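subagent[fold] <- orchestrator: predict structure for attached chain, return C-alpha cells only, no commentary.
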Amino acid sequence: MFKQLTNLDSAFKHTRLVTLAVILACTGISFYSSYNARKVIENSQDKVYVVAQGKLIEAIGIDKKEVLNVQLRKHVENFHYYFYALEPDEDLIKKNITKALYLADDRAKYEYDNLREQGYYTGIVAGNISQRIDMDSILINTDNTPYHFTYYGKLKIIRSTSIATRSLVTEGTLRALQAISDNNSYGYLIENWRILANTDLRVEKR
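subagent[fold] -> orchestrator:
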C-alpha cells in the first residue's frame, strides 16, 4: 500500500514537471513569435516596394526619400506633358487634357477653360499645329508638406513654316492622396498651380 502511494506521488511529480515544462516551452515560443513579428513589422517599415508586372517586389537598397523624389517628379512631369503636348486632333487634345486634370486641382481646370475660351485649342486644330513640351528640370522641396515644386521646361510650337520655342516656368504644391488609381498612378494631387513665365525664346524657319 505504501509502495503504491509512493508510486502515485512519484507519477504526480513527474506529470507536474512535464506540465510545467510544456507551459514554459509554450510561453517561450509565444514570446519568441511576438519578438519576431515585431522585428518583421519594424523591418518592413524601412523597406520600399515597387509594382512590376502586377507583383509587389522589394526595392532593395533604395532610399525612401529618393523614391519619394522620383514619384513627385514623375507626377509633375506627367501633368505638364499631358497638359501641353498637343496635336491637331480634337479627340487627342481632349484625351490628354482629361489625363492632366486627374493629376491637379481646379487651378489647372481654370487655366484650361481660359485657353479654350480664347480659342487656343481650336487654333491648334485649324492651323495644323503641333505643340511639344521638353522638361529642363524640376525642383521639389520634400522637407515640408505639402511639397512645393518649380517646373522648368520649353514649349515648341511647330507650324508648317516655323518652330517657335518658349520658356515655361510653373510652380505649385503636391498633396498626397489616400490611394492610387489608374488615372493617378502616383497618388498625388497638384494644388495652387500657376504659370510664372511663358516667354518667347526664338523662332526658327522650317
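orchestrator: received. Logging for downstream: Strands lie at 49-52, 55-58, 130-141, 147-158, 162-176, 188-205. The chain has two domains: 2-46, 62-205.
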